[in-house]
Write a structure and sequence with these properties.
Blueprint lengths: L3 E2 L2 H10 L1 H14 L4 H17 L13 H16 L5 E7 L8 E6 L3 E4 L5 H7 L7 E5 L5 H4 L2 H11 L3 E6 L3 H12 L6 E6 L5 E3 L3 E9 L24 E4 L10 H6 L4 E4 L5 E9 L8 H6 L9 H9 L4 E3 L2 E3 L1 H4 L8 E6 L6 H5 L2 H4 L12 E5 L2 H4 L2 H8 L6 E4 L10 H13 L24 E2 L5 E5 L3 E3 L8 H9 L4 H21 L6 E6 L13 E5 L5 E6 L3 H9 L3 H7 E5 L5 H4 L2 H15 L6 E5 L3 H11 L7 E5 L12 H13 L2 E8 L7 E7 L4 E4 L7 H6 L5 E5 L7 H7 L4 H11 L3 E5 L19 E3 L4 E4 L10 H7 L1 H27 L5 H10 L8 H8 L1
Parallel strand pairs: 4-5, 5-6, 6-7, 15-16, 16-17, 17-18, 23-24, 24-25, 25-26, 29-30, 30-31, 31-32
Antiparallel strand pairs: 1-7, 2-3, 2-19, 3-4, 8-9, 9-12, 10-11, 12-15, 13-14, 19-20, 21-22, 21-33, 22-23, 27-28, 28-29
Helix pairs in contact: 1-2, 2-3, 2-8, 8-24, 17-18, 19-29, 21-23, 30-31
The structure holds zinc ion (2 copies).
Length: 868
């Protein structure tokens, strides 16, 4: 096995170049890690300081390997020698739908694997409790965002879960991808990332199986666009190592440093769209079981010390002689299972058909090949490629015992069931504010295949051992009626809904029914840190008119949320988005951008609209990441016209002529009078924004921040303030440490600003269903939920939704209140005991309460992943 470790030197180099980003991520890590607070926290903070002050001195730590890890690995080794894996199955995570790209999870009692990791994969794994604890091998079939979009978030989560090392196999560009994500993820020193590029003869062997990587090259000629309508991308083929002048996105210091690193102002481009990697996975053989009853009958000394040696020999297939009698293995052992093989192959377009169909290594597992035929072939292949005759003939060359699993957009499977469930229940409260979720249905017709095949569904399993068979016990049901019934049984819920409806029918009808249809605000992600089943990470769509929309932040999975919100209308929605604002470089705010850009291009092609780049308003640091991705993974730069956020601050230095005209175009396109930003109190380069429409309304978005006066000034008398409220009241210290706001602080900012209405979002994932708030909620405050959509005419109704919401989530609120009471009690006791010591004064009260053991925060984020 050729392990290629990322050279420490280059990592150190990146730390130096992106000192600011290292610090940014440290804060992000803090956000992500609620269970490990007290000890980890000060350490992380102090690391930050060191980072900032003297980045060069930063030590590169070896990944932690606990005694538990060492022990479990040894146990696994012993177990393998004796048994081989007893249970192995492959399970569909993402079935290949437009909102959940293809990904496959493979489980054995020793190892967990993932084949491809698009956006939303970790959210699905969290929702459906797929164990991440030993997920230390990720295989990528092609360097495309559909396959790697969720990888950065997954790596951070695995790091938080305590996985010491992750092996990434696939295209050699994965190494560059990992370097690119360091731009916002920081040094990632707690997890060892080994990239195993698919150069010739790469094999991975562990306790479960041997995985061979098979590089396959498309034979398309240079500059002929690759026909991947699946993603709507046009990626001209390029041979590796081509030099191309970097497309100038904007002259305002974006990527300038990058350019300096390559001579002649040319970027070293290693993009290789002609490469896919197929995987042949062969399970280790499993020795037969020793049959005690038969052995006794034949007179073998069962139950004595002498039997051990005999069993070992018989299981090894050797005959033994006992008391003059010869015993053959087949008399007392079940047969050895030689170990089935399965193949994972992606054929993204017709150009790959011939190279796949003629590949010698793959044909070894077909009829007449030297190996036992494959038990399963997993096709990550779009329908139009399945229609290709040559591909069909290739499928037919596997024997009838081979099963075929197809993952593509034809799959009709609800993946995010919890999301559908909560929305169905919220819909009972207000059908317009909480519209029913939809499914996107592909327009492509189904291919007629002669080979029997199975279409993927989320959680569908194919068991490879002990017995090869399909298993459908884990399949999901999305029964709307059941969800409604469940809600109806919640005490007081229906009564509260009726009361709320009564109100809507009278006063609110005047406001809501006749109010303007636009602007409309659609909350796509309202949770912080990492995507979870109920709340996805940041993303808010502002529909300015029927043809103009703007997106505020774009965390991982934002496109999936759009897809479920708009169903078949998602293309129109995407085509309407002309501007994206990214508040800061934390992973929960921007890692969904690339899906959005690729899918938007696809939407425009489908709708026959002329492609135009999106106007991206973001911190300049984003361009380092986009540049790296563009150079080594996929073309992306032509999708954006970049406006650095800093140029939109009041009194900012004058941008270049080009940027000025971009800003003018942005305003004109969306009928805006002003688009302003200001720096906020979170990490370095974190911005809030304010948009003022020509008709007079003003919308202010805080991004992540502590209470911030600059934001108050920018948003004076705004129509709507969307403010983060990560934590509940009483957790002010934690909020300061993590540089976030509590609910009351957020409301306070809105009051100071004299905002007409305040919507709270970005809740810590510990408040999965509903945040905890005190009674200072007034008639100018609303709580956001994923897929909630409001118009300015709804301001009167939104606060009225709180009583039915409280009854729907009464159980969760009760639990949260219990935790709060316990915490307050502990704080009080801590204060009292200090008073007894006579040390109580204003300064020390603060310190003292810190010393009180911190509430065992529910930390759902980590706990669930850990438990898994
Ligand atoms: Zn955040
Ligand atoms: Zn943040």
């Amino acid at each position: 096995m050729n392990k290629v470790y990322l050279p420490c030197k280059s990592i150190a180099f990146l730390i130096v170049r992106h000192t600011f980003t290292g610090r940014i991520q440290k804060l992000s890590c803090i956000e992500r890690r609620y269970t490990q607070t007290t000890i980890q926290f000060p350490r992380t903070m102090s690391t930050n300081t060191t980072d900032r002050q003297n980045p060069g001195l930063k030590k590169f730590k070896a990944p932690k390997e606990t005694l538990r890890h060492v022990k479990s690995r040894e146990q696994r080794k012993r177990a393998v020698e004796v048994h081989g894996p007893a249970i192995v199955y492959a399970q569909v995570v993402g079935a290949g739908t437009r909102d959940n790209g293809p990904s496959l999870y493979v489980f054995s009692e020793f190892n967990r694997y993932l084949f491809n990791c698009g956006e939303g994969t970790q959210r699905l794994m969290q929702e459906h409790k797929l164990k991440a604890a030993r997920l230390d091998n990720i295989f990528i079939t092609r360097m495309s965002w559909e396959n790697v979009g969720g990888l950065s978030g997954m790596i951070l989560t695995l790091k938080d879960t305590g996985v010491p090392e992750v092996n990434l196999s696939g295209p050699p560009q994965l190494e560059k991808y990992v370097n690119a994500i360091r731009v916002f993820s920081g040094p990632l020193e707690e997890i060892k990332l080994s990239v195993r590029p698919c150069t010739a003869e790469t094999q991975h062997t562990d306790e479960t199986m041997t995985v061979s990587q098979i590089p396959i090259r498309a034979n398309f000629c240079t500059d002929k666009p690759m026909n991947t309508m699946n993603s709507g991308k046009n990626s001209p083929s390029r041979s590796p190592q081509i030099q191309e002048p970097r497309r100038s996105v904007d002259s305002d210091d974006t990527g300038r440093r990058e350019r300096e690193t390559s001579p002649g102002g040319k970027a070293q481009v290693t993009r290789d769209p002609a490469l896919v990697v197929a995987y042949v996975c062969k399970l280790h053989p499993k020795k037969g079981n020793f049959l005690v009853a038969q052995a006794k009958e034949l007179g073998l000394p069962v139950g004595t010390a002498a039997i051990g040696r005999l069993i070992a020999a018989l299981k090894d297939g050797k005959s033994v002689t006992y008391e003059g009698k010869e015993i053959h293995p087949e008399q007392v052992c079940t047969p050895t299972d030689p170990g089935p093989a399965f193949i994972v192959v992606e054929c993204p377009s017709e150009e790959f058909v011939q190279p796949i169909c003629t590949n010698q290594q793959l044909s070894r597992y077909q009829v007449g090949g030297p190996e036992d035929p494959a038990a399963l072939v997993v096709h990550m292949t779009p329908e139009r490629v399945l229609k290709n005759d040559q591909y069909q003939q290739w499928m037919e060359r596997f024997p009838s015992t081979t099963e075929h699993l197809i993952l593509n957009e034809q799959a009709c499977s609800a993946h995010n069931v919890r999301s559908y469930k909560i929305q169905t229940q919220l819909n009972l409260i207000h059908p317009e504010i909480f519209p029913e979720l939809k499914h996107y249905k592909t327009k492509e017709t189904l291919a007629t295949l002669n080979t029997p095949n199975v279409r993927a569904e989320c959680l569908l399993k194919f068991q490879l051992r002990p017995k090869t068979e399909w298993q459908r016990d884990a399949l999901l049901s999305c029964d709307t009626e059941e969800f409604v019934k469940e809600a109806a049984q919640v005490p007081n819920f229906i009564q509260e809904v009726e009361k709320c409806k009564g109100f809507s029918a009278t006063d609110a009808a005047l406001l809501s029914g006749q109010a303007e249809k636009f602007p409309e605000v659609v909350f796509l992600g309202t949770g912080s840190a990492l995507p979870m089943k109920i709340r996805n990470v940041s993303g808010t769509l502002v529909n300015i008119s029927s043809t103009q929309s703007l997106l505020l932040d774009c965390g991982e999975g934002t496109f999936g949320q759009l897809c479920r919100h708009y169903g078949d209308d998602v293309d129109e929605t995407l085509a309407n988005i002309s501007t994206v604002f990214i508040s800061h470089m934390h992973a929960d705010h921007h890692t969904g951008l690339l899906s959005l850009l690729f899918q938007r291009e696809r939407a425009m092609t489908v709708l026959g609209k002329t492609f135009s780049p999106i106007c991206l308003v973001a911190p300049v640091q984003i361009m380092f990441w986009l540049n790296q991705y563009h150079d080594h993974c996929e073309e992306i730069l032509r999708h954006v016209s970049f406006v650095p956020s800093k140029f939109l601050c009041e009194g900012a230095e004058l941008p270049s002529v080009k940027t000025t005209s971009l800003i003018e175009a942005l305003l004109k396109k969306s009928d805006l009078e002003k688009f302003q930003t200001c720096l906020v109190r979170h990490c370095k380069h974190a911005f809030a924004c304010s948009i003022t429409h020509q008709s007079g309304w003003q919308l202010v978005f805080s991004g992540d921040t502590m209470p911030c006066d600059a934001l108050v000034n920018m948003g004076k008398s705004a129509t709507l303030l969307i403010h983060e409220a990560t934590l509940e009241d009483g957790l002010e210290e934690e909020a300061v440490a993590k540089r976030h706001s509590t609910t009351s602080q957020a409301i306070g900012i809105g009051m100071k600003m004299n905002a007409q209405f305040i919507m709270l979002n970005h809740f810590s994932q510990r408040y999965a269903k509903i945040p905890l708030f005190r009674e200072d909620f007034n008639d100018r405050v609303g709580i956001s939920f994923d897929h909630m959509q409001i118009r300015f005419g709804d301001f009167k109704i939104v606060p009225r939704l709180i009583p039915p919401l409280k009854s729907l989530f009464a159980e969760e609120i009760g639990e949260m209140e219990d935790r709060r009471e316990k915490r307050e009690l502990r704080q009080m006791r801590g204060a009292e005991s200090m008073e007894e010591q006579g040390t109580l004064n204003a300064v020390e009260l603060g310190r003292g309460s810190k010393r009180v053991p911190e509430e065992p925060t529910p930390g759902v984020e980590n706990k669930r992943l850990k438990a898994n």
